[in-house]
Amino acid sequence: MDSTPTPLVEMRDISLAFGGVRAVDRVSIDLHEGEVMALVGHNGAGKSTLIKILSGAYKRDAGEISIRGEAATIDNPREARKYGIETIYQTLALADNIDAVANLFLGRELRTNWGTLDDITMEAVARKVISRLNPHFRRLKDPVKVLSGGERQSVAIARAVLFNARILIMDEPTAALGPQETAQVGALVRQLKSDGIGIFLISHDIHDVFDLADRICVMKNGRVVGTARVADVTKDEVLRMIILGKCPPGASPGNLADYGAARPSEFM
Q: Within a domain: residue 50?
């Protein structure tokens, strides 16, 4: 009897081409509950395109997506949200001129029986959600433009989990943050993991990847070089996967091996 838990997300043989360019070419990847899967690779490797397929921003040409073992149809962001998939982009997409409460409920405001905004309930809910993620958050009623980078991440993440996100896509969550704010985002990620939320983490920062991720998937030229547990590979090995397309002994080879890894001379 197979005791392997059913993945939260399975993407199998996903392909997408723009014109004659295969941005994603037969890529397979999975994610489990309470896990952080890092997607790394050079610009143009295909990692952002792959994740945009999961978030509904792009429609795949081929391949299958399963959520908790069931086939999923995801052709637009609205359908993705039905499956509990939320994306936090690098820009965070926050409205700078309004406070954290208003940002959490923007476009999904709660109303009283009389049709007016239910500010009291929205503030109580926002306070509860944000304080669970970040107990040190105090600036609930300040415009988000005056918040620190870590506090803004708290608001963006709280907005996602408020509406029952179970699969979170985080695009460069620590970009342009200082050490203290980066540590704050790390604490947020660990809290999300403890709540059973699965996270796809896109990052160029190899140090953040090793600090936050459980597994790493390296992509190159639209294909998977390999996937590995963080504990089974070194930073240097991951860098060689990114640059040379070579899979080390501690990683499971991806479909890039079908085409042959890039020769070192190609990068000289």
A: yes
